[in-house]
């Protein structure tokens, strides 16, 4: 009988590379929110995958970006900090678009470390046009040497192409060890943050790109009763004009956000949910340490 393997694997990449889609597909459960809006993921989210002879603890991270401001610099710092005390890096790139400057930042960090890396060449269901560009870029960074890169593998996180092979390669690189989590645990992501992310996902869905970047969700109360969960949450915005957009004419937009979010929340809690949403103006909240800490976006 082969020895059991376990370890932490960080999923790294620029915004919209498909990190959250990959995590949700592998876990067969929605743990991380998905949106076409860049920088949707703002937390480091752990998802636990139990296999026959291995346990992989995936760490989904905010996308590496070049946006300005304290919030976004904090998210970059949080992402690179997640590389500490892990066994493997799953570096996800979107081969349907060319490499950009964020890739330079990521590769420069990875080549300095001794952590094994798998580069997953994602979105082959859309296009394979830029696969060679990413491979050549890595080789240039390492002067033709692949270390610490162990494998390149083309995948489709959305369609599931080559994901079994990807898992085989990951298990191969993991050390022998006992499971870190019980089989019942899918994630250690705090419940209030999961609720906040579900609401923010709907904001990304219903509103224009610039509005989600300027919003955050702060869950004030979660009261779970026998047959119903009562949730009170504040949607934070930077300006009064943004508040008006989120509320909409006669409350039409916030009603849509609440109705749609409630459906996902009822799946999460497996019971009826009463969701109360308020929109509050907190000027320049992205640069206020107090607010960022309360939201869980500030590094400890």
Give an overview in words.
The chain is of the alpha/beta class. The protein has two domains: 5-173, Rossmann fold, CATH 3.40.50.300; 191-295, GMP Synthetase, Chain A, domain 3 (2-Layer Sandwich). It is 35% helix and 23% strand. The chain has helices spanning 19-27, 70-81, 101-110, 131-141, 163-173, 191-206, 210-213, 240-247, 252-269, 289-295; strands at 5-12, 45-50, 54-60, 88-94, 117-122, 149-154, 216-224, 228-237, 272-281. The strands form two sheets. Strands 2-3-1-4-5-6 form a six-stranded mixed beta sheet, sandwiched between helices. It has a three-stranded mixed beta sheet with strand order 7-8-9. Strand 2 (45-50) and strand 3 form a beta hairpin. Helix 6 packs antiparallel against helix 9.
Quick one: biggest sheet? 6 strands, mixed
Shape: globular
Topology pattern, helix = H, strand = E: EHEEHEHEHEHHHEEHHEH
Q: What are the segments in which pLDDT stays under 50 over at least 5 consecutive residues? A: 34-40
Features of the shown structure:
10 helices; six-stranded mixed β-sheet; alpha/beta; 9 strands; 300 residues; globular; GMP Synthetase, Chain A, domain 3; Rossmann fold
